[in-house]
Design goal:
single chain; membrane; transmembrane; 1 helix; transmembrane helix; 90% helix
Length: 63
């Protein structure tokens, strides 16, 4: 059997801690990216609504 000394436990603990921290950072980055994509979609929707309103206004002027 492999005996772990105190140094081995500290090393394993620090590696596990690094894995947890890295996965947390990845989760935060993916959440930020999805929020950023949602904001971009909102801006595109506003632009589409603006174009539609302009089109409707020009149709009203022509009638």
């Amino acid at each position: 059997m492999l005996k772990l000394t105190n140094k081995g436990f500290v090393l394993a603990d620090s590696i596990i801690g690094l894995i947890i921290i890295c996965s947390g950072i990845l989760i935060l980055l993916t959440n930020y990216q999805s929020l950023n994509n949602q904001e971009n979609l909102k801006i595109e929707d506003k632009e589409r609504m603006h174009l539609l309103l302009n089109r409707v206004r020009s149709m009203d002027k022509n009638d």
